Structure formats: C-alpha cells, structure tokens
Amino acid sequence: MGVTRRDLLRAGGAGLAAGVAVPAGWSAAGAAVPDLPPVPALAPSTLARDTGFWEAVAGQYDATRAVVHLENGNWGMMARPVLEDYRRHQDRVNRETSYYTRREFGRDAREVVRRVAALLGAGEDEIALTRGATEALLTLIAGYHRLGPGDAVLYADLDYDSMQAGLESLRRRRGVEVVRIDLPEPATHQGLIDTYERALAANPRVRLMLLTHLSHRTGLVLPVAEIVSMARARGVDVIVDAAHSLGQVPFDAAGLGADFVGYNLHKWIGAPLGVGVMYIRRDRLDAIEPHMGEPEGAQGIRARIHTGTTDFATLLAVPAAIDFHQRIGTPAIAARLRHLRDLWAETLRGSRGIEILTPKDPRLAAGITSFRLAGKLSAEENAAVARQLLERSGIFTVHRTGVAKGACVRVTPALFTREEDIRKLTAALRLLAGG
Asked: Which of 36, 79, 310, 314 has the most CB atoms within 10 Å of its CB?
C-alpha cells in the first residue's frame, strides 16, 4: 500500500521534532527570492502604487499575454520560484517513489504542517491538510454531529454552491430545517450584521450557520468576527469559508473568532493546485465526528479527514509558496489588489449603465469585484457580456450566478496584473455600457 493522506496528516500530529532539517531544495522562511528586489519600506497603500516594484513582482510569473487575464479567482498561478520548487519535488517523488515516501516523507510533512500552522496563527493540532477548501468545508458540514430533528441551519445567497448543497443535504442526513437568506445589495458593514441578527432572531432553532469571508460571486467581504460573536451569544456554531480570503485579506485564525474554518492554499497563497486546510479549534474537536474511513478510537483533527494517497509534490512545495507570499507580505498584497480593483470599480462607480456590486467601504472589499450592466440580470446575458469582453477586447473574465438580485460578471486581478490591463478593462466597460 502506498503512503496515504492519513499517513501525512498523522505525521504532523505530534508537532515538529526539534532539529528536523528542512529538506534540500526548500528555502528557509524569509529567504531571498531570486530576482525579486527588497520590498520598499513604504506604507502598504503607498507601495501599492509603486509601479517599478510590482513590475518586478509580475516578472516572477510566466503569465500569458495572449489575453488580459482578469479571472484569477478560480485558482492562483504559481510564481516561478514556487513552480521550480514544485518541479524539483515532483522529479524526486517520481524518481524515488515509495523509497522516499515510506522513509522520509513523514518528517518532511511535519515541516509542511508547521509552516501552514504558523501562517494561519493556529496550532499544529488544529489543522489538517486537504485537497482544497471545498473538501475541508464539506468535511466540517458532514461531520458536525450536534444537529437533530427540530434544529435548523442557515446559509446565504453568496455562499459557495457546494457548501449550500452540503447544508441542504443535512435536511435528509440530520432531519433539520434549512434556512436561506439573501444578503443586502448594496451592502453596508452594519447592514450585514443586522441581516444575520434578524435571521437568527426570526429562526431561533438555527444551531449551525455558514459564513463566507470573501464571496466568490461578488467579492463582498463579511464582518465575520462580529457576526460570529453575535451568533455565539445565541448558541449558534459557525463554519467559515475562507477559501478566497487567505492571502487576499490580512487576518489570522484567532482574528476570525470561528471554531471551524476551511482555507485554500492554491488561490491567494500561490501553492500548486490541490491543497487546502481544515481548521478546528482544539477545544471544539468533539463537535466534528471522526471520518468513517478512520479506525475506531482514532484521535485528533487528522482523524476527521481521510482522502487517500496524496499528491506529495504539491504538498512539499507549500513552504516555497509561503516563502514567496511572505517575502512580499499579505498587507502589501492586499493593498495592491485593492488598488487594482479601485482603478476600475471606483472609476466606474456611478457611471450610467454599470452597477458595481461590491461596496466602496474598504472593510467590505478586496481584489475581487463583480459588476452588472444595467438591466442584464440573467446568466445568459452576463455570459454574453464576458464573451464580448474577450472577443472584442481580449479581456478574460467570468460570469457568476446565484446572486439574489441577478447574475453578474466577476473581475479578479492578480499580482501579475498591470495597471495598463485595468485601464483597458475600464475603457471596454464604458463601451459596453454605451458611455
């Protein structure tokens, strides 16, 4: 039998033994990234406009210039140093196969767990590596066993489709009622808190609630900490979807205040595709039942997830992705993405024929933002808008459905996006809107 994900996850369970060496080919935390200049000692908001620095950062990505790529929310491109590190690990795993995985991988996996826990501000016993946030979140939803007939669960229109389906499945799995709400548009900070408070007041049987920190549909950032605190006061547990916020918004596990969280590392941290994290606060572990694939009596967070043989090279490249990300820093990255977003969204806000769905309030927005052309609410109309942007202007975006007030088109810049790309988008949208 090959090394399984269970072997990996358990390898991190006891923490990193003192003196464990970092495997060859890995860079130490904070090590210099080749060809990337030192980060200027500027406030993030000022650094965000430093064209020379961000040109150097963009040069670390082998991004296609065949199109203006503004659909980076699906998954993130690896920077060149990360890609090279991934290839080295892939070559080694392919060359040595189980000779490596059975003898040395457990030690190396503990270093991956240590680095990810430090990134999140969490304990090593509070995280388990997964194939993505979806797997982590569905595991939390299915494993939460404090529900029964007479209880209710709650989600919103902007939550991810798979997580909505997961909560809907609890109707038949646990015999609960499912409550769905629509978030306000336009949204305000207090208005979002009030929306959830009203929903819980109107549905006192709710015992579990899903919150999406940063919506994949519109880019709306929820005041998660405030809503979690309010829900906890009512005896409601919260599962937080942080798939898009990790690396795009500065925060840590403690700052969210949630007991159960799913994260992605292959979106805004820039790890290879296929790696995420499940977080369970250590004193809440008993709320999530062990996975059915684990032997009876299995303990710890890693007994809550079981996915079989892993992609070893993907996991081994995670520290290189963290190194690259931390070399620039989440505050600087967040400011840059917000700057790129504001260049088009705030320039066009209030323009005739264009609706900007994400508020101007910096607490509620990050890099992702969606728009609608006036009167175009259907999936077909918004798919046509995205197609027109690509065919007429060479700009790649994606339409999104599921928003209560109607479908939209999502714009997602990346670290390799240049200001000239955003100016091209602005001009193209003005033409489409007839302005």
From this structure: 79
